[in-house]
Structure formats: C-alpha cells, structure tokens
C-alpha cells in the first residue's frame, strides 16, 4: 500500500504538471493564444469596418496626414516596445541593468521621430504633390508630438526613479 499524499504535495505536483504542459507548447502557439482576444475583438472588426466601404470623416484633416501622423505617433512606438517585449518574453533578449519597461516606452515614443526616411518614403509613395504635402505635414506633426511626449515621459520616469532612490537612501 502506497503512503498517503498530503494536500500540499498534490498541489505542488499539479503546479509542476501545469508548468510542464505550458512548456510543451511552442512559443508561436502561446503567442497565438495570447493575441487571440485582441485579434478577435479589435483587429478583425476594424478590418471588416474599413473594408466595408464606410467613409470615415476626419474632421477636415486629410487621411494621408492622419495616417502618417498616427503611424509615427502610435505605430512606431508600438512596434518598438512590442518587439522588445516579445524578444524578452521569448528569451531572445533581456532588459539591460537599470532599464525598465516605462523607460523603454519612452524610447518607443522617441522612435516616432521620423524625418529623413519618412519624408523620402512619402515622396516615393505619392506622385501627386498635394499628397506629398499632406504626408510631409503628417511627418512633421507626428515627429514634433512624438518628441515632446517622449521627452516628457522620460522626464517623469527618471524623476520618479530619482525620488525612489533618494527615499531608499534616506531609510
């Protein structure tokens, strides 16, 4: 007859079994299941809405200007921070000592600063001078706002870090 197993041991075995099962899935499978709700409830409805032929009014702002502006202000920071998060999560990279996620978000905001390449690509993408001007306006507005927000974000983050390090030294 086997000795009785205590409740704590059963819970430990179950936790270990869950960990082993989680590791049995590939990183791509885990990423797919993590992104599933976002894709289902945000990306697909937006895709369907945009492809339904519904006209979206931007209140006087040209769609090219708005697209370039949002691409620099939201797209680039999301791409930079998202790629870094994914690399850390998968184990390809680690945050350097002294770097935390709020600081990396500030760097992501600063990545929205785009002059030379953004202006060059807009000139290649649009042959019409009016569309090129709209794209340039989006680049300039997105760059200025990304720079201002990035600097302010980093100032707030570093001020908090300095304040917490001073509190730690005082104790």
From TrEMBL:
Pfam families: Na_H_antiport_1 (PF06965). It comes from the Bacteria. InterPro entries: Na/H_antiporter_dom_sf (IPR023171), NhaA (IPR004670). One of its GO terms (molecular function) is sodium:proton antiporter activity. It is found in: Cell inner membrane. It is a multi-pass membrane protein. Its main location: membrane. The keyword ATP-binding does not apply. GO terms for biological process: regulation of pH. The chain crosses the membrane at residues 38-58, 64-88, 100-125, 137-156. One of its GO terms (cellular component) is plasma membrane. The keyword Membrane applies. Keywords: Cell membrane, Membrane, Transmembrane, Transmembrane helix. This is NhaA family Na+:H+ antiporter.
């Amino acid at each position: 007859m086997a000795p009785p197993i205590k409740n704590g041991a059963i819970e430990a075995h179950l936790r270990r079994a869950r960990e082993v099962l989680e590791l049995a899935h590939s990183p791509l499978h885990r990423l797919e299941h993590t992104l599933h709700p976002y894709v289902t409830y945000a990306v697909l409805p937006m895709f369907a809405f945009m492809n339904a032929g519904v006209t979206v009014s931007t209140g006087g702002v040209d769609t090219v200007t708005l697209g370039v502006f949002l691409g620099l202000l939201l797209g680039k920071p999301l791409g930079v921070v998202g790629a870094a998060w994914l690399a850390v999560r998968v184990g390809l990279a680690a945050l350097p000592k002294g770097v935390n996620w709020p600081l990396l978000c500030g760097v992501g905001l600063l990545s929205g600063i785009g002059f030379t390449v953004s202006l060059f690509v807009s000139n290649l993408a649009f042959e019409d001078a009016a569309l090129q001007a709209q794209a340039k306006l989006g680049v300039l507005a997105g760059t200025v706002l990304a720079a201002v927000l990035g600097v302010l974000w980093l100032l707030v983050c570093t001020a908090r870090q300095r304040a917490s390090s001073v509190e730690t030294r005082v104790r």
